[in-house]
Amino acid sequence: MPIDASKVESPGWWLQRLGKKLLDERPDSVDERGEVTPGLDTLRDFAEGRPPVPHVLGVDPREAREWMRDARTNWTGTVIDSPTERMHVDGFRFGDPDDDSDDARKADTEANRIWQENSLDADADLVHYGALSQRRAFVLVERGDDGRPVLTHETPRQVAVEHAQGSRRKLAAGLKMWRDDWTGNTRATLWTPDRIYDFTTRSEAPVFSGHAATLQSWDAMALPNATDGERLNDLGLVPLVPFINRRNRRITGFAEHEDVLSIQNRINVSLVNLMAAMRYGAFRQRYASGLEVGEDPVTGQPIQPFQLDIRRLWTTDDPEVKFGEFAATDLVPYVRAVEAAVQDLAAISRTPPHYLIGAVVNVSGDALKAAETGLVSKVRDRQRNFGESWEAVMRLAFRVLGDQERATAYTAETIWRDPESRSVAELADAAVKKSTAGVPWRQRMEDMLYTPAQIARMEIDRAADALNAQTAAEAATPQPTSLDDARAARDQRTVIGRSADDADAA
Q: Is the predicted pLDDT of residue 501 greater than 60, yes or no?
């Protein structure tokens, strides 16, 4: 039965609105000024090293397409990978910063358990990479069959959300639309704060006009224990958490490589020109003057007297013939054009130059750290934004568990691994100095890049070592062998408020 989409905020209305929003972002769009905004398809192609083959004057792309494809170099992949590989979540801290109670420790341990149950040590990188390469990513929080929270990474190619009016944090609705490989149908799930709706259509490529009163090809999907594809949302919230990259550039997200796509195209053009010069101009062209050229008796066309080949030598019996050669094309300008474009890409994306060029010769450690300053600052900025999203994910996970106190713990903190490169010696030296300044032991261990799980094990080991040391010290103390020795040992004990003179007088 067709889905009614005429009523605002009805399930069909949300399906049409969010479905159109999701599909419209995939292709490129052109504004009234003629400026092209890359779509998700283009962003993905550049991220995966499949930019368009540039057109070069004098080169037929049909004849040279193979080597022109080989001439492309994927610098944008490095622009995305360099910050992603420095973004790693070590854990979460719940409660006030000075709260060291057992309840706070239990919450931290439970958050770490949720993280490990969902394999987020690995999948968190998918979320970060997806947000950096596709403007945003999502984490879906659901209740599993065992009642535990299930956290999954979702892409903007399948998920779209709508914020409540006047809010950039609270969600009014969320939609996931995907192709069901088992049945061949297209399925969609719509979440509102109160209800969850499931839809299906036989169309492999559904289309939304945005103003249709009914959706003819869609139908409610009947699920077990649900009426007409509708069920209660017991979380009371849309269980999707967006991770939006560079919202200061565009409120809906801005990809990490989106502002260097034109530079990547310029680099590819320079590389194709370089390859063309290498193929057609690097080999010196030879000529012969004063040579009689015969004609083909059948076609009447001149017969090529020599084959231009690096393995052949030209000779003739005519002493009047002269041979010569043209100078090879100078490739240095082409190489310098590529290097200049790469430097522009490094400056705009704040990617260390040695990441792109790969030439590190006689460079000090301080110089390398200075070159990575922009990248470290960029990573810390992404960590602040994504940290808020991870904390929202954990609050939703505790809501699934029924822990209302942690579900509203807005003082939660995401513990990120330090994105700056430091040696073990530097970290150890800093820890010793912090100990002198009075920094607590647990904080020093976090600063030395130990994970919360490692720190918890070290605390147990420290307590065991202290107990063993105390036992060994007591065993090493000689025991009194007579009554007089026991009295002497007793008299030598320190008594509070009693001086040494008073002991001698006694």
A: no
Q: Are 374 and 354 in contact (CB under 8 A)?
A: no
Residue among 260, 280, 259, 258 at smallest CA distance from 268: 260
What span, in angstroms and rounded, lies between the C-alpha atoms of 122 and 153? 11
Model pLDDT for residues 173-182, shown as the tens digit of each residue:
999 999 988 8
Name, in order, each residue with C-beta under 8 angstroms of 459's C-beta and a sequence gap of 6 or more.
442
pLDDT tens sequence across 260-296: 999 999 998 888 888 777 777 666 777 778 877 778 7
The strand order across the sheet containing 136-143 reads 149-154, 136-143, 240-244
Residue 322 three-state SS: strand
The residues, any chain, with a CB within 8 Å of residue 449's CB and separated by 6 or more, are: 90, 417, 418, 427
User: Taking a C-beta distance cutoff of 8 angstroms, is the pair 158, 183 a contact?
Assistant: no
- Residue 207: strand pairing partners: none
**With DSSP H G I counted as helix, E B as strand and the rest as coil, what are the percentages for the chain, rounded to 5?**
45, 15, 40
| 3-state class (DSSP) for residue 160 | strand
Instruction: Report yes or no: 263 and 351 within 8 Å, Cβ to Cβ.
Output: no
Q: Round to whole Å and give the CA distance between 407 and 422.
A: 36
What pLDDT is attached to residue 495?
46
Q: What is the DSSP letter of 287?
A: E
Q: Tell me if 181 sits within 8 A of 247, measured CB to CB.
A: no
Which helix (DSSP H) or strand (DSSP E) does residue 187 occupy? strand 186-191
User: Each residue of 7-58: pLDDT tens digit?
Assistant: 889 999 999 999 999 999 999 999 888 889 999 999 999 999 888 887 766 6
Strand runs labelled E in 144-299: 149-154, 159-163, 171-179, 186-191, 195-201, 214-215, 218-220, 230-232, 240-244, 286-289
Query: Which residue bears the tokens 């920094």?
Result: 439
H or E element, residue 138: strand 136-143
pTM of the model: 0.79
Residue 88 in tokens:
């790693």
